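Here is one chain, start to finish.
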Amino acid sequence: MIRLLNFPTQTHLSLIIALFEMVCGGFVCTKNSLCALNILYVMVSLLLIGVAAWGKWFGLVSSIRVVAGVIGVGIFLLFVAFVGLCGALMHHQVLLFFYMIILFLVFVVQLSVSAACLAISKEQQKELLEVGWNKSEATQKDVERTLNCCGFFHPNYNGTCDADCFSNPLSCDPCAPIIQSHAEEVLRFVGGIGCFFSFTEIMGVWLTHRYRNQKDSHPNSGAFL
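Its structure:
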């Protein structure tokens, strides 16, 4: 045990890879792992589409752009998962190749966005939030109604506000501090979730590359078409 701990890091990684190959080094195991990963992506994509539609249906989100963006991401993820699942089930070299390329590009983008979410400063958060606030009146109404606040930096007593506190304007707080406190939590959560799924995506790329180079004991005649 002492000798093992004194090995260099590269040796440890080699031992981990060798252990994985011993446990799941066969064609069937790699195929099942890739299928399970894509089934997970299908579930996540359906969850994204369902949550966006549910939020719009019950009036929790009135911004069409936000709902359309979330649904678009869900449909794209569903398409990628479908390509990967079909390629894994049929051992189709062309589908697996395009799936591997798309998944790697998604990994690069998602890891970059996740790192940005975790590294963004409070001043940068405030600037981005102000830009988003001034860009959409529908978003302003949603935020004021949900967080029970008025205005961004200070309430506008001569204007309108959808918050309940506006019946007594002096009791209304500005939205900027409340939004920023929530934004910090959301950015940490999104960054952490993004990093986790980035790991699954690079694992998917590695599994796909490995699976493409494995030989099926019952070859599919259409795999290279």
